[in-house]
């Protein structure tokens, strides 16, 4: 095969399937045959042209950053560095590693690294077609494995739709376990029942002795709240029917929860509710972007209650490694989140289904593209 097909984003809501020359693989890089690529809220914003920098909004690119596939070609040096051989299945971290020396890398933000040949942000699905060799996204038959790519080996016999959930599960591990470090018998409130909120339920039930998990959603999220209960949530709250703070008070005897994990996108008002819902000395993890809209939070309440508020974006290497290992070991029920799969010619539909604009059989929770 001398070419590879990909669904190229060319403008708001528009995708075109194009063919690209297959990249030449040198001693220090590789090529992945993409098996599946999961979708998340970032994909929706990218597809509509509302995400990122001015360049992000106009430059054609191949979207998709939750990528799993089979190593198809590999340089000798790359094989030693990644400890991989052709035929191995891997999951790909979205952020390409940096130089490790500049200020951005030292501060833990390699995507902003300005060293080397790649422009910032060094993230799969954010690099445009003008950056050779163009295959920088998961909505494609192949993905170029840059020498700075961060890969995690996964078992080949795990269903591909399950393997493709490694990214939301890694985020959940980071947000619900590694960042807040909940103590045994903690009560945790998860704001939002999307795939990452539900993944937090799975992570907490597998990896902690959490006493009680509460999950919030809207009336339209009834199917997600039902699944949250199946996955181990103790209390689900339809905030359009029951006031959040009243439900939290009832579930905790008026004490408040130990940890709040905010996974909601574009909902700035929930931050103030998180401050009111958490106990004295509790922790709030903010992981849901608010689209640039400000959140009105009482600084006096934060001070008086001695609340720790931590921002958390994406996941660390440790979280990705744990996610891959736990999926491989079949110790989770993360597979319950997958609902829909689509091909390259149906990327636009996949995004509409995830957004709820189109119902294809059943409401979506986790959607993937299978080239």
What would your notes on this structure say?
The chain has about 375 residues and is α/β, with parallel strands linked by helices. The chain has two domains: about 5-165 and about 335-370, Quinone Oxidoreductase, Chain A, domain 1 (Alpha-Beta Complex), CATH 3.90.180.10; about 170-310, Rossmann fold (3-Layer(aba) Sandwich). About 30% of the residues lie in helices and about 25% in strands. It has twelve helices and 16 strands. It has helices at about 40-50, 75-80, 105, 160-165, 165-180, 195-205, 220-230, 245-250, 270-275, 300-305, 315-330, 345-355, and strands at about 5-10, 15-20, 30-40, 60, 65-75, 90, 140-145, 150-155, 185-190, 210-215, 235-240, 255-260, 280-285, 310, 340, 365-370. Strands 3, 5, 6, 7, 8, 15 and 16 form a seven-stranded mixed β-sheet that branches. The protein has a six-stranded parallel β-sheet with strand order 11-10-9-12-13-14, with helices on both faces. Strands 2-1-4 form a three-stranded antiparallel β-sheet, with no helix packed on it. Helix 12 links the parallel strand 15 (about 340) and strand 16 (about 365-370). Helix 6 (about 195-205) runs parallel beside helix 7. The protein is globular and about 65 Å long. The two termini are about 15 Å apart. The relative contact order is 0.14. The mean pLDDT is about 95.
